[in-house]
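dumping this here so i dont lose it
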């Protein structure tokens, strides 16, 4: 899947409008579905990360392919702003400094071990029983982790399996198209 700069801009705008409209109801503005390009009706997973002054303030996503991408982006943006349990909900005063990062996900692919994981290219998804967790591809790079640290951190902190829990869990990789509001530009 590829996204043009215009399509990325539309997704950033939709995320921003949805969060802004919730936090400042007097500023609520609906985007007519008829104005959204058909290409953004694709059904795929997506994560939305919100930053204020370069500090993470929320990150929520879904691997579900039940909703169109444009709808999932709006839902995940609002969830990241209001329900990420690691942070207090965003408030209206933070909107002026809000940076939005969107990661559009490819389908997950099962892998047999760490040798099939390429840092910076692959996100990981770990599952054993009802325990599961994921880390986006950009996390390993930003943290300067090697593959084992990537897997260990995901297993321990996201899936609740302990550092070596990934060794007897199901492993999957996926790729992501990652873009943010600063890259897209001030007109977006």
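and the seq i came up w/
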């Amino acid at each position: 899947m590829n996204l043009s700069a215009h399509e990325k801009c539309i997704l950033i705008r939709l995320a921003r409008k949805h969060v802004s409209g919730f936090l400042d109801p007097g500023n609520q503005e609906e985007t007519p579905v008829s104005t959204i390009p058909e290409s953004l009706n694709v059904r795929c997973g997506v994560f939305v990360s919100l930053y204020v002054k370069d500090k993470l303030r929320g990150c929520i996503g879904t691997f579900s392919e039940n909703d169109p991408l444009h709808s999932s982006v709006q839902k995940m943006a609002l969830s990241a702003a209001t329900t990420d349990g690691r942070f207090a909900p965003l408030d209206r005063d933070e909107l002026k400094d809000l940076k939005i990062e969107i990661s559009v996900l490819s389908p997950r692919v099962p892998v047999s071990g760490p040798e099939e994981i390429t840092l910076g290219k692959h996100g990981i998804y770990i599952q054993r029983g009802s325990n599961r967790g994921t880390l986006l591809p950009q996390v390993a790079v930003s943290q300067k982790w090697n593959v084992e640290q990537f897997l260990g951190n995901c297993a321990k902190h996201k899936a609740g399996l302990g550092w070596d829990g990934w060794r007897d869990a199901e492993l999957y990789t996926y790729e992501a198209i990652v873009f943010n509001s600063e890259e897209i530009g001030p007109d977006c």
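The chain is about 30% helix and 25% strand.
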